[in-house]
Write a structure and sequence with these properties.
- The protein is 36% helix and 16% strand.
- By secondary structure, it is an alpha/beta fold.
- β8, α7 and β9 form a beta-alpha-beta unit.
- It starts with a strand and ends in a 21-residue tail after the last helix.
Length: 264
């Protein structure tokens, strides 16, 4: 695995052991985007998705993907594959490639997690993904509650509607409540999606320091609220560190990073 499928490192590893990136750059324009401010901003921080330079074209990229998928099938079947850390994988520019790759994953019994801020692809997906194990596909939406900081993404309310539609269709669904911009807006996203979100992953804004007492109250409130509705929670390591909380002391509805949706 090298060109398109790779092992996630650092904080990304809290989302998935393995990931797939066909493109770099993103058109959502999020003000808080780490790819625009981090150490790789020169290569990852573009304002539109661009196919990685190691590929001749999208046909070649998909051929490489299929080869790497089959070469590492047992490991990927065990741990699954995440789309994507370097772009939004479901925009008008990237969605077709992602759907083609997801279809190959489904045919080869590889679990897939998708994370997006886009909703326009859903009808196309529901019409075109057939003859695959839907149980192996988990759709995730980034939910911050701050449309003003995500100017070119679908509104948060539309993402929640899309999550419900996918959940009603039988898919596993999850939300990335990251970054927490304000505690109020993040809690609202949890509250508004609680009935059709199987897992919430919650993390802080990179490099930002939060009031420890307020953060602890937020964690307690989210745990108490979601426990009542049977939702699963994953608090990222950095969030727990700032709050001074040991993962081992969290209640049963708080899962570890290797949680699989089939464990639900």
């Amino acid at each position: 695995m090298r060109n398109v499928i790779y092992e996630s490192k650092g904080k990304a590893g809290e989302y998935s052991k393995y990931a797939c990136n066909f493109y770099v750059g993103c058109s959502c324009g999020c003000h808080y985007c780490y790819n625009k401010t981090g150490r790789f901003r020169a290569t990852l921080g573009g304002d539109k998705p661009t196919l990685k330079k190691c590929f001749k074209d999208e046909k070649h990229a998909l051929e490489v993907f299929e080869k790497e998928l089959k070469q590492n099938l047992p490991e990927l079947q065990k741990h699954g594959l995440f789309f994507s850390f370097t772009t939004d994988p479901m925009t008008q520019s990237t969605g077709a490639m992602t759907l083609a790759a997801v279809y190959l994953c489904g045919k080869n019994n590889v679990p897939v997690k998708i994370l997006t801020k886009t909703t326009t692809y859903i009808e196309q997906f529901l019409c075109n993904i057939i003859d695959v194990n839907w149980e192996n596909i988990a759709f995730g939406f980034t939910l911050t509650g701050r449309d003003d900081l995500e100017p070119n993404a679908s509104p948060n309310a539309e993402r929640i509607k899309a999550m419900k539609k996918l959940h009603d269709a039988g898919f596993k669904t999850w939300a990335s409540i990251e970054p927490v911009i304000t505690f109020a807006s993040s809690f609202k996203m949890v509250r508004d999606s609680r009935h059709f979100c199987d897992l919430f992953k919650i993390g802080l804004e990179s490099g930002k320091k939060y009031d420890k007492n307020v953060l602890q109250r937020f964690i307690d409130d989210v745990i108490e609220y979601t426990e009542y509705f049977g939702c699963k929670l994953y608090f990222k390591d950095g969030l727990l560190k700032q709050a001074g909380i040991n993962r081992e002391n969290l209640p049963p509805n708080c899962v570890k990073r290797d949680y699989k949706f089939k464990d639900k």
